[in-house]
Amino acid sequence: MKNYAFLLVSFVSIFILAGCSLEDKEKTFYDVLTPVKGDESSFRTERHISKKDDVKTVQSILHHVKWVNGKVQMNRQADFMIYTSNSNASEKAASYYLWKQPGKEELEIMYKDQNKYVKLPKKESKVLYHLLSGKDIK
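^ thats the sequence. predicted structure below, dont judge the formating
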């Protein structure tokens, strides 16, 4: 009887550990890229957002804004590019271009893959800008 209890506890432990390891493998993360000076079409990786709370904050902002359909032509290169990826190969990576307007505390975002655009409210702009740059928006 003790052997059966030991086997049962062992199998349950293995399934719990396997489930936890699968959960860890399906992490979403964001790479934050900034323009390369002198090259208007190139970006370089500046930061990597992978902390669970920060990822949830970025996801919440990007998923809860009211996107407008249509292409937008900006008059200058984006200040940031966010490249999001999930370690789950079945999900497609997404890319967003972000502009901070001079003298304003607002970000404008273009969701490149879906041809959508949004101008973020100040509150969300401040939070997102701080996560992207590590600085306060001015």
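Strands lie at 28-36, 39-49, 68-69, 80-86, 94-100, 107-111, 116-119.
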